[in-house]
Amino acid sequence: MPGPAAPDAGSRPTGGQTGSANRDAASTGGVGGQGGSAGSGSGGAPAPAADAGAGGTGGAAPAVTDIHGTVPQGGGVKGSGAAFEDRLYKYDFTLTPDAWNSLNVNALANASSNPRKYVPAVLKIDGMPAVPGDGMIGLRYKGASTLADCVKVTDFNQRKCSFKVSFDELHPGDKTFRFHGLKKVNLHSLQEDPSALSEKLGYRLFREMGIATARVTHAWVTVNGVAKGLFTVVENVTDGRFTEDKWPGDPNGNLYKQAWPGRLASSTTKGYYDDKLETNTDAVPPVTHDQILAFANDLKKNTIPAVNPAGLFDTLKKWSDPEWMARLLAVDTLILDHDGPAQLVCRSTQCNAPFAYDYSNHNYLWYQTQDNKFLLVPWDLNDTWGVNMTATELSTAITNSWDLMPSATLAQCTTYRYKAPGGQSTYSQCDPIYKAANQMRSLYVKAVKDMLAGPYNVARLTKDIDDWNARYLMDAVMKDPKMDPAGYPARIARFKMLLAQHADRMKQVQ
Fold first, then answer.
1. What is the pLDDT of residue 39?
2. Whose CA is closest to 91, among 233, 237, 234?
């Protein structure tokens, strides 16, 4: 698929290219072999490829797979794929009594402070120190509502909370303190993913559709010899290692977390972006956010006081890539990501107030390329595919999918609210970015058809699930009482059924 022409918006903003503490060069630390990157060609989604960890470790000279230089399966950080092979890793943490107590007593504060606070811990992965020396790394709990629920368990040894591992926390800037070139990984506790597969399959489908995002595998985790159970190991997407790995020819762009240019009540002010910048935070001179502000203001002038659909689509072409967006929305719609960027949640005060383009969506990032294209990146897929939904919730999520919603007017958006998993919501078509996306129906339909003809093959996915369970996953679940081992076979059977149902549903898109 040919990409849109580069905008005439000028060069990347001053700042964001030099002097950043989280933009150091490719790591030479860590251990790992070489492997091929996925796909080749120019434009559009790459051909379906094996999961990044399947048999290879990534890190060979990457092939450019689209006009943005994106390598969805990774390859810019040599050997990084060795951290995400299709197998069960063993993560063993050892903490002093003081560090263990601090981790648990201060769990919520450490996870929300700025900067986040870690405690020292020795980590061995598969019996070997994760970093040079004794394997000392930084460790903290992570999560929002999931962490708040987890810490209600008063017995520290009985808690199964998600972790963030910072390999270089005690040696900032030292490139040898990496695990296969990575600075951080996330260990997700699977408390919202009873299938243990939602993230692994969801992220893989995004990558195979040409969307750069995280790689995933599984690990058995212990702390001070106490088994914590089965976790997913999820690649960290909020530092320069991620952008270096996925855009090796253009690693120095600004990466924004949960900054939505369509949220017009906030997004046209510089302060909105200051604390949402994940990379180039120490750039000299400082990042100005000029381009993302221009993106937001272009959306605003084509929305207020009157909606101009053609102008919104022109804005999307100028500042983003409609084909990238179409492919992302094809996957997002199929996996029912009701906690992602297309879910516009109105909090209690917002839901009772006149509609003012003020709502909350989350679990996404924007990457700013060197030609000032903002590419949407998905994040946090632990509650997808409908595995946690009742039949009623599943029906509601499908009925209110962004591509089935009305092209709502401003007056309608004042009253259009619906109850969805996760809270009271506003129709996605009330947002200027999705109004623009509604003008690219042909691109979206093509992306859906490409997905069903290639990466989303139910027989292949079912075979993969059976293989992972036979080789390591089933045994791990059976040893983890918090995974409800007795109910796991039925959950896997339902997951397979949902895979087929989602394929049938998407075949109706036209």
1. 34
2. 233
